[in-house]
Amino acid sequence: MICRVASFDVYDTTITRLVGKPTSLFLLLAGEVKKKAEFSSLEEIQFMECRARAEQKAYISHGAKGNLNDVYRELEDMLHLPSNSLFYARQKERELEKRFSVGIPITTMMIDAERARGRRIAFLSDMYLPAEDIRQILVDTGVYREGDILLVSNEEGQDKTSTTLFRRLSDISGVACQYILHRGDNENADFLGAKGAGCKSMRLEPAKLNRYELIMEEYALATCGFSSFLAGISRAVRISHPNSNVRDSTITSVAAGVAAPILIAYVHWILTQSVKLKLKRLYFVSRDGEVLLEIARKIVGMSRAFSAIELRYLYGSRHAWYPASIETCQDIEDALSTWLTEGFQEVTFSTVFARLNISLPETEQVFARYSFLKSLWNEKIYKNANLDRLKALLQDPQIENLIFAKASSHRANVLSYLKQEGLAERELWGYVDLGWRGRMQQKLAKFVLQIDGIRPEGFYYALTSMPDTSAYGGYHVFSSHGDPGALSCFEGLAAFMETMCSGSHGVVLGYEKGEKGTFIPVLKEAINNPLQKWGLSIYRKTLDEYCEYMQKGCVAIEDWRFEKEMLYRLLKKFWLEPSANEARVWGDFPISSDPLDAGKMILSSPIEFQNIIGEFLPYSWGYRIQSLQTQWWAGSYNRTSFSFRALLRIIQKTASAVRVVLQCGRYLKHKITQR
Questions:
Q1: Residue 205 and residue 137: Cα distance in Å, rounded?
Q2: Residue 656 burial (CB < 10 Å; 0-12/13-18/19+)?
Q3: What DSSP string runs through 476-541?
């Protein structure tokens, strides 16, 4: 194909805005101009509608020559505001356009490739903005060079739709239309318009919104443009790595389209509540708090509203705090019915004693006294009479004394660490976690009271139930049971939220005194290798880039508006309707419900025949065909082969038919009995 000039559409082909749709920029513009007294009574939606109509009227009156000045003259007649006020709004719009414009990397690569082939570069735009503004944006995004051609409809008096702007390009470049190749996203203006002028044309849609961004854009009016801002950032981050493989791009897409909006909304709520409660310090507990803390630091950097709050990272875990909290026989009994046997079906004797920091050699004498074989150590406690045996062991005086001694030793280190971190200071402070039962806060509150500190105000994304607030401090929940997106809305939410907040280091085993006399956390591993292998660094980088774009957009904190229904829909769309790539990539996410991170599994596995059989077999059997180990049923289903899914549908329909027959049978039996 002979081509001497490569031309590109500008908006949504070469550059895009940090809003989902162009009209949403007018909502954010209204939010900025409302700060002036003469605009204070103006509603954002009213301004947006008037601004959009003014653009249409300017085009009807002036055709392709219609420019921003013409638009604002029309707006002046609609809003009946003085011209000097609208001059301010017009300048603000030009400023927003520059601030919200970002380059599209894949198009930049195409432009560079065309330059390498020796072709001249041209940019064409049907636009009301001054050419100097568009040229400066193209320069700032690194695509415009001296010698390039820029043609803007309002200055040329010609547009792409009528084909005249392409003929103008031919005249200026001295190249016949048949040797011009144009790329753009608009069917009529870029594809058909170029063809109508005799140019070669290619449809290019690099800035098309994905399904998550479309959901955010739906709430643009309800949030006065802020959700559209989030959609624009999601798109900008998603398209910023054109060379990524499928796995990396899938991680990036979900991180930018689902995780980032939800986590930023949650952290913004925490900071807002902390200001209302006049908290001096926020502790983000490991490991879920690690990513939340990073987001909080970035938000605080965007506004002075939260600058008075000190943000800290607190190393803690169920294993570091639960065993250390045991002081009485009742505590042991309570532990047995909760955290000691958590994950009951997979828990062995060795698991239970490891959670108590007790090893096999320390219990051998007691095992011998009860005539227990060493082989029992790795037996699962749900089998036979093993749970009764475990209860007997934990009630043995020698074991009890060992548990109390271990707990006392660990508790001393916990208290020293907490005191070192400032929790003995009698200042109002907050505790940040994801959820789900609030038990960590209960243990922490008990420890803090022992060092003469005060109870915390706890912040959670969601809780399965509300604990006793008087004994352990305050509990504040972002997504309560009645809210869209609450835990009760659909199964598995907790598992996905934990994947979004997974830490980069291993579980905290306890604390020890370091060389400098300070207490430091003892980590199972310094780096969470399974997560790094999965792609944690890509996920975290995506969140960082998202926050950087929020900083670039510079939307005032007081204008941040998050719709919980929108966040719920994002969660639901991903969790219940994952794409094939999402199910495969996020399904491989390594998870563990064990306090010591033992027994790693993945978020979802493909469904196999033995899984279906295994679901119907009781645990009391001496053997057991494997049941499906999954936290994400939709993910497992999508990872299953097409042929097996067809079989599952047949089984489901057959089971439904059998249920109907059985119900009819019971109904007939009831009627016969009545007679």
A1: 20
A2: exposed
A3: EESS-TTSTT-GGGSTTHHHHHHHHT--SS--EEEEEE-TTS-EEEEES-SS-HHHHHHTHHHHHH
CA–CA gap between residue 597 and residue 15 (Å, rounded): 45
What are the backbone angles phi and psi of residue 398, rounded to the nearest 5°?
-65, -40
End-to-end CA distance of the chain: 88
Q: What is the pLDDT of residue 489?
A: 56
Question: What pLDDT score was predicted for residue 344?
Answer: 63
Measure the CA angle with vertex 529, ends 258 and 347; round to 5°: 90
Following CA atoms 14, 15, 20, 26 in sequence, which dihedral angle do they give, to the nearest 10 degrees?
-130
Enumerate residue ranges in the chain where pLDDT < 50. 618-626, 671
pLDDT tens readout for residues 261-298: 999 999 999 999 999 999 999 999 999 999 999 999 99
Do the beta carbons of residue 483 and residue 564 sit within 8 Å? yes
Exposed/middle/buried for residue 7 (C-beta within 10 Å: 0-12, 13-18, 19+): buried
Question: Which residue carries 């370091």 as its tokens?
Answer: 514
The answer to whether 429 and 281 are in contact (CB under 8 A) is: yes
Residue 200's H or E segment, with its range, is strand 200-203
Q: What is the pLDDT of residues 430-483, one digit of tens each?
A: 999 998 889 999 999 999 999 999 999 999 998 887 776 678 899 999 986 556
Task: Classify strands 101-103 and 15-17 as parallel, antiparallel or unpaired.
Answer: antiparallel
In the three-class reduction of DSSP (H, G, I as helix; E, B as strand; rest coil), residue 374 is classed as helix
* Residue 284, helix vs strand vs coil: strand
Report angle CA 598, 602, 605 to the nearest 5 degrees. 140
* pLDDT for residue 481: 54
Q: What is the pLDDT of residue 622?
A: 39
Peptide bond into 436 cis (omega under 30): yes
Q: Is 225 left (phi over 0), alpha (psi -120 to 50) or beta?
A: left
Q: Could you write out the DSSP letters of every residue in 560-628? A: ----HHHHHHHHHHHHHS--HHHHHHHHT-EE--STT--S-EES-----HHHHHHTTS-TTSSS-PPPP
Q: Please answer whether residues 129 and 94 qualify as being in contact, where contact means their C-beta atoms are separated by less than 8 angstroms.
A: yes
Q: Give the three-state DSSP class for 322.
A: coil
